[in-house]
Amino acid sequence: MTSEEFVALAARLETASTVLRHGGCLLQAIARRYYLVYTIACRAAERHGVKFRRGAITEDGWPVSHQSLPDVVRALYTGMNSGPVFGGGPGVVRKGRLTDDAASFYTDLLQKDRKYADYGHGTVPEPYDAAKADRHLEWANHLIEDLQTLL
After folding, report:
1. Which residues contact 1 (CB under 8 A, 6 or more apart)?
2. Would you say 69 and 84 are in contact if contact means Cβ atoms under 8 Å apart?
3. What are 89-144's pLDDT values in tens digits?
4. Following DSSP, what letter does each residue of 121-137 receive, concatenated?
5. Is 122 exposed, middle or buried (0-12, 13-18, 19+ CB in 10 A)?
6. Could you tell me which of 45, 59, 34, 32 has the C-alpha nearest to residue 1?
7. pLDDT for the residue 107
8. How far is the CA of 13 from the CAs of 6, 8, 29, 112, in angstroms?
9. Where exactly are the structural domains of the chain?
10. What is the pLDDT of residues 8-50, one digit of tens each?
11. Could you tell me which of 9, 26, 92, 117 has the fewest CB atoms within 10 Å of its CB?
């Protein structure tokens, strides 16, 4: 995607998350913020030549799957391999808000929130109260802030 497309997508996701949060759609706000983390991580992975291994094949240019995103984030934080992800560039270039372990862990939790928001069938429309939703949004904000140092 071009730089203009990336900026437009990031702005749309940011705005959507904010509007949804203020409207009381907490889980959907978290899901939009997760997609912003995903978009920034994909852009950083592309910029720093991250490669992926599937079986015995290692190539760059394969799209980042949502399932591999925690490994991509860890590789971007550390600059080292993580699971099927090879390389990650220079690592988060300043002292990040999160450690690589916390970043990977929170990415996984946010991904689960996104899956629940997009596919989950529950009896409660909003499983989190405002305080818990805000904690999840804060994790996403820390990830976004850290990963933006790689762009």
Report:
1. 9, 43
2. no
3. 888 756 678 999 999 999 999 999 999 999 987 788 899 999 999 999 999 999 99
4. --S-S--S-HHHHHHHH
5. exposed
6. 45
7. 97
8. 11, 9, 9, 18
9. 3-148
10. 999 999 999 999 999 999 999 999 999 999 999 999 998 988 8
11. 9
- Return the CATH architecture of domain 3-148: Up-down Bundle (1.20)
DSSP 34-93: HHHHHHHHHHHHHHTT-EEEETTEEEESPPPPTTTHHHHHHHHHHSS-BTTEE--TT--S
Maximal C-alpha separation, the chain = 47
Structure-token pair, residue 32: 């939009």
**Lookup: tokens for 60:** 């760059």
Two structure tokens written together for 105:
């862990």
CB 21 within 8 A of CB 131: no
- Whose structure tokens read 């291994």? 53
Helix or strand holding residue 9 (H, E): helix 3-22
**How far apart are the C-alpha atoms of 37 and 143, rounded to whole Å?**
7
Amino acid letter at 100? D
